[in-house]
């Protein structure tokens, strides 16, 4: 669930606006539309898109009456892909959120952005082919800046692309409706509907890993904000003129309290570089002073940011995910105490650890795909 990429991992071979992946004007519609993109071969496995779609639509496909009067196939599956800077988590997932098949594969950033895009689209096709007649749609989530309304991945530093119309490319290749969204906001959706946020009404999700990102959901729906960037709590300034952040600002939460920065700051203090944040958490429990100091600084910064979020949006709960959340009570307990200490006229929202872990993005992509399938069923 990385975002913005790790330092030094940025690649310089982007897709550009004038490239063959440039977005046709017709794509200024939701992701169901399919472009006449010349890069996509008209035939896959010797079949056109229409022929492939027909192959997945046998006459004896079981149907049932669904709420709202639409007709939906029974036992159908969506393909879901969560694309990270290191690996892709993908699966075939049924309507109740059960993972029927799962695969993890290296993203392969070392092969360049074109190969990464081809790998993502190819994996989507593999999943759909595996599902056969049961395939109903495809959901994808990727890091970086995403225009979910048009299904276009605008920019991802660590994956090196610019303006890739993933939803259209996957839809064209598979013959199925496809939807694209931001990875963390997709994880937010899953935690809100089927994870730690269930029953909370509203929740603010914070993913603390290589970077720090977040998102807000109410009643099972994510609010992406006007520019699709709502919830970027990692770039809230918690130390004015503090350490530089990848975003260009200084003193952002991410520059102080992300797992990677905890490791870096511990190395600067002790001379022991390369110690993981997970190991540092163990050293905190063991009572090592340097680890305790770095950890406390991170907790302070996180509490400042959560206090600001509490005052501004009053969430029913915070859900803490990402790699650092694996520290469990070593993170959650002091953070909850520090948060409560910063709030004067109100109580603090509870802090819950993620229940979906690193599957949250994939499951959220599946939920978005089901939303798209359902909306298409209602329209048709
Ligand atoms: Zn920043």
Automatic annotation (TrEMBL):
Keyword entries, A-Z: Kinase, Transferase
Compositionally biased tracts (Basic and acidic residues): 48-60
Molecular function as annotated in GO: kinase activity
Renumbered residue ranges of the record's region Disordered: 38-68
Stored Pfam families: ROK
Lineage: superkingdom: Bacteria
Family the UniProt entry places it in: Belongs to the ROK (NagC/XylR) family.
The name this protein goes by in its record: Glucokinase
